[in-house]
Amino acid sequence: MNFFKKDYLPGLLVALILASLAIQLAKLPFLTIMGPLVIAILLGMVWRMIFKENKKLEPGIQFSTKKLLRLGIILLGVQLNLYEIYEAGWRVILLAIFAVVIGFTAVYAFSRLLKVDRKLGILTACGTAICGAAAIIATAPQIKAKNNDIAIATGTIALLGTVFTLVYSIGYQYMNFTGNEYGMFAGSTLHEVAHVVAAGAAGGSEAVDLAVLVKLIRVALLVPVIIFIGFLFAKIEKEQSPKRFSLSMVPWFIFGFAIMSTLNTIFQIPDNIADRIIDVSYLLMGMAMVGIGLNVQLSSFRSNGVNALKAGLYGSIILSVLTFVLIQWIG
To answer: Of which family is this protein a member (predicted)?
Structure first.
């Protein structure tokens, strides 16, 4: 596919401008908790409300939501140094695995009980368990999720993460945690990296460092979780059609994510270069989120959003309570 086709340019230009604006807005005090990806979706929705649907934007927007999205996810792998995860110790790694398993299982179970659409339930569960909006948009192609589902799931996670961040920050003084224990708690239960940093600040700089480390271990689990979802979704699809599962159904871009993490571990890419790569990653993913926002139907929030929010809330509470008890127990 030729990146420089003329009919791509209008959509790419709009996506680039709005994604860049989202990144700048995400630096503001309150908006930093929401993160640039959620803001990019909102800007796309606002653009559509003001300028209505424009067919000229469609080719570039489709390119953003499919090709640039995958490239952004691959580049995001550079934020992981697998050796640092190894050095964290088996208890911290097991805590992160526990959080991912409980978070995904609880949210998905509640979504089924509340009759949330299966794909929306999977996206909300992944966003809760792993790394918020980035996990949602990485999972979406694997299950062929609709733009409305992606928007609802990211909006749900942004809202819940913000509420839980405020609750943690205010409630820290009553938790009877050391700074390190609080960092482990925040890092293993909050949704976005921005939430982890904001909430971890209540416990001091060491709490923030440990919280981010635990969170990045959860991000590293994105690879096996998406492969697992590939098997899970293929099994569900097989009940409806005779298609057989094969490894070709596993998304290639998630291996790109793993390769970038491995390269960063082996060569220890300097922080200033890694930060620029991550900035490009979020710009590309932000352009994809603008495209999603441009195609969102607000009516879907009223019909599907409430129960998805409930499932995310109930599952997040379960995750927080069980993790709190576990950390109190292991010290």
So the answer is: Belongs to the UPF0324 family.
